[in-house]
Design goal:
11 strands; 15% strand; Rossmann fold; six-stranded mixed sheet; 364 residues; alpha/beta; 3 domains; single chain
Length: 364
């Protein structure tokens, strides 16, 4: 009915884009059709863009929804019988002898995107076929890192900053040695290092496969990325995930991690990272992303102490918890509660859309 009403409005000259029709249909699903006032204001808020279109909308609404005859304009109603065909690959349709659809009523074809549905679906309920499609979508992710000031200076078009004596002298040769046109330098920027720590314990099994794909996409799309697996021990998997073949990279990383789907000691793992890698320079000024649900078998005091150490050297700490999207979620797990005071960004990670938002957070 939303699609048909949009066609009526276009027939009398109103500009109704497809996106507005979809918004109207979603709003009707929330408001319902029982109230005339609710339907009217839902349509007017989503389908009318200009004040001069209100009169035409009112006439079309009266004819379409209330079946009252129009006055000045001729409002052409859609036929009573409409066949709605979903554009689904492999769908069965009644076909006539010459290959035409065997129906007399007009056919309205509605296209839908399985990719859009897949973006918002929880990784934990993916089917094997959906994981194959998700891997292709995740390979398109491109991560842009946060920037930091560099010691190198670059040429500036602005007439301010540090004077560029070499270019200024070179340009002065064109004016008889007079520095008529001065050149300047500005501070350059450099990408910050990105460090990814993935919890591979048994509680993270429904999401670990998707997160490994995200780690691989991050490593192959940019430089200065380090990846580690956190379980009962800390394992560096950067080299294994450097392969351009996603399947080969994931297999190599899984073979490298001996405690996959085992227990987890987040505090001990972060301590090992700080002692062997982070404090020595790997995490200094870096964006550190931890993928974990916060369930920890170790002492929460140890995790809190190590997170405080990491926060003192890292530029930002982002914690990705796939359980955050659950209704009524609260960070009550002892590991999550201990780490949260030292986290700069606490985000979801249960779907492709959540990982796209994570990529945006990392680039800030």
């Amino acid at each position: 009915m939303a699609v048909a009403f949009g066609r009526v409005l276009r027939g009398i000259g109103l500009e109704v884009p497809v996106g507005a029709t979809l918004t109207f249909a979603q709003a009707l699903g929330c408001v319902g059709l029982a109230s005339r006032t609710g339907v009217y204001w839902t349509g007017r808020a989503t389908l009318v863009n200009r004040p001069e279109d209100i009169a035409g909308f009112d006439r079309a609404f009266a004819v379409f929804w209330e079946r009252r005859p129009g006055s000045d304009d001729v409002v052409e109603l859609p036929p009573e019988e409409v066949i709605i065909a979903l554009d689904v690959p492999g769908g069965d349709e009644p076909v006539g002898p010459e290959g035409e659809v065997g129906v007399d009523a007009p056919v309205v074809t509605l296209r839908w995107s399985a990719r859009e549905i897949l973006r918002h679906r929880d990784f934990a309920v993916y089917t094997p076929a959906e994981f194959v499609e998700a891997r292709r979508l995740m390979s398109d992710l491109r991560l842009a890192s946060a920037q930091r000031p560099s010691r190198r200076r670059k040429r500036s078009r602005a007439h301010r900053g540090t004077p560029d004596l070499r270019r200024t002298v070179r340009r002065s040769m064109r004016a008889g040695g007079e520095p008529v046109e001065r050149a300047f330098l500005s501070t350059g920027t450099r990408s910050r290092r990105l460090v990814l720590l993935l919890d591979v314990s048994g509680s993270m099994e429904p999401y670990a496969r998707a997160f490994v794909r995200f780690l691989h996409a991050a490593i192959v799309s940019r430089s200065r990325v380090e990846a580690f697996a956190l379980g009962t021990r800390l394992t560096r998997v950067t080299r294994e995930l450097m392969s351009r073949d996603p399947d080969a990279a994931v297999r190599a990383a899984a073979a490298r991690v001996a405690d996959w789907s085992g227990g987890t000691r987040l505090g001990e793992g972060v301590r090992r990272f700080n002692d062997d890698w982070g404090i020595r320079g790997l995490a200094r000024g870096a964006v550190v992303v931890i993928f974990s649900d916060g369930w920890d078998r170790g002492e929460p005091e140890v995790l809190a102490e190590q997170m405080a150490r990491l926060a003192r050297v890292a530029y930002r700490i982002v914690w990705v918890n796939p359980l955050k999207a659950s209704p009524g979620y609260a960070p009550l797990a002892q590991g999550m509660a201990a780490a949260l005071p030292y986290v700069d960004e606490f985000v979801e990670g249960h779907s492709l859309a959540a990982l796209e938002e994570l990529a945006r957070v990392i680039s800030q």
